[in-house]
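Fold it.
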Amino acid sequence: MEMSLERKMRFYRIVKLVLLAFLIAVGVSLLTEYIRVESNKPENTISFSGHGEVTAVPDIANVYFTISKDAKTVKEAQALVAGIEKKSLDSLKANNVLEKDIKTANASFYPKYEYRQAVCPPIPMGAGTAGVTVNPSSAYYCPPSKQVITGYTASESITVKIRNTDDVGKIMQELGTLGVTDLSGPNFSIDNEDGLKAAARKKAIDDAKAKAEVLARDLGVHLGKITSFSEGGNYPTPIYAKTMMADSVSGSGAPAQLPKGENTITSDVTITYEIR
């Protein structure tokens, strides 16, 4: 029996759809393979490094000190620390140091221990081993020793930002006479380095671009888009006053004038270009 016309038309439509789906699948597969091959092709690139730096006079100084005291009880030790802390804060405020620039870095207390051994009673005459006699007046220590709390240590560490750097010597000298345990600094730095970092980065980028243009011209190539960028920097190293403690504790003579010098902010960048 011959296939009716309607069934033939339906059959042809199905064949067309199957064939179209097959062609689409093949096209997608070929396109995917092309993209994979193109993406795996090695890029022709060239990299350039650039360096930039700016200098500035430090406008702040950071000072660090610790107050540590021993006492029989925690309360007594903390009271001693609080007394010196109040004198220190009063001195800082009298020298126009802002309250927001004074910060407690750490506060703690801990017990002090001592190892002790009990003295045992003398061994009676004739009680020694192997016929050895012991002088009844002699004493010996009974093992083991035991740990005994003898007191407590309270400690507080404070950091101070001094905005008027000309007053650093005077402020440290006063703190050294108030009973602080440790006093270190100053660490001269720049309060807002973001603008200086941006300026150093701009110089480094300009340096790298200038090198790229010269080399591209010499090689006879054209620079394409930037494919990667990286930056590193060597920021200011703290400057510490080495002889400040002796002058501060003695409290004699005029306050030391501490040279601030200059801080150098640097930026090193690497820029990679496509070449064609």
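The chain is about 35% helix and 35% strand.
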